[in-house]
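Hi Y.,

Following your request, here is the sequence exactly as I used it, all 230 residues.
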Amino acid sequence: MELNIDDIILWQYGFLKINETLVNTWIVILLLISVSWLITKNLTAGVHIKRGQAFLESFVVYVIDQIREETHEDPGKYLPFIGSLFLFIALSNIIGIIPGFEAPTASLSTATALAICVFIAVPIFGISNRGFASYIRHYIEPSPLMLPFNIIGELSRTLALAIRLFGNIMSGSLIVAIILSLSPLFFPAIMQAFGLLIGVIQAYVFAVLALVYIASATRVRPVKENSRET
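Below is the corresponding structure, written out as tokens. Let me know if you'd prefer a different format.
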């Protein structure tokens, strides 16, 4: 088993390389697109709907409730980003339990790319909610001396987000591989179920943390206004 799936090169021509991380990521993306298209192509209204549509609607309602609870705002503008993050990470982790298929999120490159998406999304949502000047101003509050510390805080939490996802998925895969090699006849089903649970939990944690970061960037103005009122 390779410790870093980025080292598994499937095709190479000169300096151009296609590794397993890249191929598995595209497989996950194609699966998400295909399943979404199959479920949504014949949506119906009423009580008697298909199971796929019922599952999709339940998932969307759950994500909307989570977003509304955290941001106290209209969840519509956050739903595509947060929902896509959760679905991509969850499916990437879940298919990692298939023998011979490594989870793309077990790569530090993938985890870093996802964390960078959150890093970029935070100021975008913050500026769209509060305006450019108001959002930039919070970097120098309560004092301009806090500017470097606030910037370091933004970078460090992005790095922590990537390391947390990569470390948990990578360590989980290693533990499952080690136990399966020691007891291949007794624990496969249990460990696969364990890996499935861990994968979904990590996707949930990543999506919730992303939502918390975005909410903190869009909620500064109300907090400030409330503090003035008091």
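Confidence is low (pLDDT under 50) at residues 222-230.

Thanks again,
Q.
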